Amino acid sequence: MINNTDIIAAINELKGNVDRFLDNILKDEEISRVHVLILLSLSEKRKKECKANVNDIVTSLALNQGNTSSVLKKMEKMNLIERTRNKQDERKVEIALTKYGREKLDIVEERIRKIEKALKEEYTNNEKDRLMNGIDELNKMVSFMIKEEEKI
């Protein structure tokens, strides 16, 4: 029978593989995995024609508020993003992709598309749907584990 320790070990192994995958994609770029995740999040916000703020990034990526602020400052210095104060509420900082940030993200997305093309040849849509359903179930299970642990 599989126990929680087995699940945590499997998740850790998966996380390591995803990290290595992203590291390989980024090996020639000057950006980190966290930078890419933030750029992707900002890109999604832009598609929905809305601006992101620090809380959006923290919440959507489950990041630490303090760490995220320092990462965003670094990204601004790298010209990947621009930060502006909200005109209605100066306490809020809005974040947007710069042209350079979009270019970097385009490079990463193109590399991912090439890998997706290879995946399409290797795996059926049904297999990918089953995988996504499994990932959804895994997320639900881990969320449940977190809630239970918080009760202790």
Question: What can you tell me about this protein's structure?
Answer:
With 152 residues, this protein is mostly helical. It has a single domain, classed as Winged helix-like DNA-binding domain superfamily/Winged helix DNA-binding domain (Arc Repressor Mutant, subunit A). The protein has a 3-stranded antiparallel sheet. Helix 2 packs across helix 5. The relative contact order is 0.10. The model has no long low-confidence stretch (mean pLDDT 86).
The largest sheet is: 3 strands, antiparallel
Number of contiguous helices: 6
Q: Helix and strand string, N-terminal first?
A: HHEHHEEHH
* Coarse structural class: mainly alpha
Q: Widest sheet: strand order?
A: 1-3-2
Overall morphology: globular
Low-confidence spans: pLDDT under 50, at least 5 residues? none
Radius of gyration: 18 Å
Mean pLDDT: 86
Going by CATH, what is the homologous superfamily?
Winged helix-like DNA-binding domain superfamily/Winged helix DNA-binding domain
CATH architecture: Orthogonal Bundle
Give the % helix: over 70%
CATH topology: Arc Repressor Mutant, subunit A
What is the quaternary state of this protein?
single chain
Top CATH class: Mainly Alpha
SSE inventory with pairings:
Blueprint: H1 4-26, H2 33-47, E1 52-53, H3 54-61, H4 65-77, E2 81-85, E3 93-97, H5 99-122, H6 125-151
Antiparallel strand pairs: 1-3, 2-3
